[in-house]
Amino acid sequence: MEKQHLMDIAAKKKKAAVVFKDVAVIDVYSRETIRADVAIDAGYIVAIGDDYEGQTEYHDPSWTLAPSFIDSHVHIESSMVPPHEFAKAVLPLGVTTVIADPHEIANVNGTLGIEYMLADAKGLPLDVRMMLPSCVPATPFEHAGAKLYAEDLAPFLGDPGVHGLGEVMDYPSVESGSMDMLQKIAQTELAGKVVDGHASGLSPDQLNVYRTAGIMTDHECTTAEEAIERVRRGFYVQIREGSVARNVEKVSRAITESNAHRFLFCTDDKHLDDLVAEGGIDYNIRMAIKQGVKPETAYAIASLHAAEAYGLKDVGAIAPGKRANFVILSDVQSVNIESVYVNGEIVATKGEATFEASGIEVPKPMKGELKLPDLTVDSFRIAVKEEAVDVIQVLPNSLLTKRERLVFTPDTSGADLAQDIATLAVIERHHGTGHMALASVTGFGLKRGALAATVAHDSHNLVIAGVSPDDMLLAAKTLEKVGGGVVAVSEGKVLAVLPLEIGGLMTKRPYREVADVLEQLNDALDVVGAHRHFNPYLTMSFLALPVIPDLKLTDMGLFDVTTFSFIES
Description:
single chain; alpha/beta; TIM Barrel; 28 strands; 27% strand; globular
């Protein structure tokens, strides 16, 4: 009966509940802007055209309606708040659907972490589609809080909130035919769900293997050339603009009107302070338009293309039969959002959410506890050597690093301020194994103090960068006391600290409060002398991820990602 009712409205036999009269509409199918009435009823777009009548009518010729946005790959935990609070941050930015991979909390708390994220996301106006973490841990070369096998993931595939398998980062397991990895992919495909990818550094031949295995997407492209390689092999390319990895400027150069349908937008990992200051997918759209992408094409990439890639048949466009998920824009080029609608109901206006959500109780086992070894100042001293040593070189606004062989003159701590060389430490925090590794790192600009976090992709051990062993010890002890988080320390004083009581990754504090503390942490960067043209905290958090080249540090030692082997000290 409801469909007949909607058809009667479309045929102009009945009035719609709401009609937006004579507004500009971004048509993401034809990638053009038209003027039309938009009729809405029962949460659906019923018609676009002329002379539709509504019980409520809106007349504002300056408005442009566009389909709301889909973030095609995001780790909600990187915002440092759980789904219910994340929704309040991103819905005002026009994002109404996210494809979320909870592999951060899964690396800490295993299946309990996945269950928590699914439960906290239920009932929100934000449509959260969870992808089951495929690589926990990311590699065998680190110690995570949990291990997840195909048999652990299988029960989740029947959950309506689960949409597929998250980014497959362990390429060697794919190529070698690991039974567990192939089973994860096979059971996902058997359930009719999607398999996401992570193809950082793969050659054209390796991409062929990867695609043949059934992997559909990649968000790790950093150049237009890499993007084209993937499009030609049938991948969807997710153009990422996060807090560290900023790829829209270069990768969007690959977009043409003939291949645009294979491109999506994502944020991957973005801190709340950057979401508040810059935006989310709306920022990707702005950046792409500045790079010369046709505005209507940029909006299609942000909506329809992601919907089609992930089989979301009822969203992604302003067209009859689609859910009434849309944004009202006062300016298309700058993506100035007046209000956001989900199922025909307003959920955000003028940058503020109009709904309440308090989330669920955090399970006790997920409340942060750091199981660190007995640390002393000497734990953070690197042995002084006269010959060249391997040094991790940080690359601004990139997850990539370079392997450098440098001869330097360290002080008693192992740092060399003149050459911008600091000490990096990664300490296992989940099981009390006592595993700890040190390395030299260059590129942070640190002049004093230390930065530390329990956000350290993907195993989320404790990572510390510093030039003072005393301050590195204080940073570790501070986070141990508060149960995990992010901290900046200098000359024996804690400059700023953000406790993250949920697995050492998230907090239930309101998102704007979290953004304020992140600003305090950013201000502390000036005190320790760190660079500000990129995000040192997030950059540091990826220095322990041994699946993105070239050189990374895990709790087991210095790791060469290009050879997938440890470097002998």
